[in-house]
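User: Hey, my collaborator sent me this sequence without any context and asked if I could get a structure. I don't really work with proteins. Can you help?
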Amino acid sequence: MPDFRGVYPAIITPMTPDGGVSEAAFREVMEFNIRSGVHGFWVAGGTGESILLTDEENNRIAEWAADQAQGRIKNIMHVGAPDTRRAVAMAEHAAKAGVDAVCCVPPFFYRPGDEGIAEHYRAVAAAADLPLFLYNLPGSTGVEITPDLMKRIQDTVPQLTGLKHSSPETHNIRVFSDMGLDCFTGSAYMMLPALTLGAAGCIDSSPQMAPDVWVEIWDAYHDGDLPRAERAQRRGAEITDFMIEFGNPSTPKAVLGERLGIDCGGPRLPLLPMTTEQRAECIRRAAEFGLASAVTAQSA
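Assistant: No problem. I've predicted the 3D structure and written it out in structure-token form, which is a compact way to encode the shape of the chain:
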């Protein structure tokens, strides 16, 4: 079973001016993060706007991610959908595309109960026959994956490998880790404390804007240099505050566009793009963190 640990940015899905998905910009963002030392990506998750994309667009993104990786990092491809048949079809395609693992939110809108959720995951996992990660995102799905539900899934889905834990029930990081699962915290604020609870790493949006910061947390912690890890975590928290202030995924799209000299577009409706004034202020603030040039910020 592959080892999934470290810093896994929840990568954006850049958009073209006509509202499509941009392969060139997606590859640029991936490559920038790979060269900065990240260990993998959470592809087409919440930050990647997967629920707002067509299944065909999600399938193309899986192909781009696998091709760009060239075995250098691991891609965990999100295949979640409100119905099992669609999720199964995307899982099959992701496996053929060559990703390393699939991930999936529980069924949403219709909530089938624990038995239905476990059956949904069994079907998705069987279709891909890859390591499966659950996406515990109760704030969006209305479903909390509790330790009891996790045990039920673990007993019936042999491909279950881990989860992204984006829940306020942070104490369950230790519980899930003790169950033998690779439990990633879904909070960039929490990477360092989560590691002390047994977390496998961090999956969140803000690390892609400054991947070196979160790689520093990882490296310092594993080198036993807690003061260095704490300093990096404080900087990461400040960057995450900044991202939340201006909105996700608009902020990483704007910042990465400036850092890399590419057009990442805006979010897809119903998410609203930044106004011209908001974007200018965002880039100005990004320059204060060293994430954009002061010249660009002044002229934005």
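In plain terms: The beta strands are 6-9, 40-43, 74-78, 101-104, 132-136, 160-165, 182-185, 201-204. You can pass these tokens on to your collaborator as they are.
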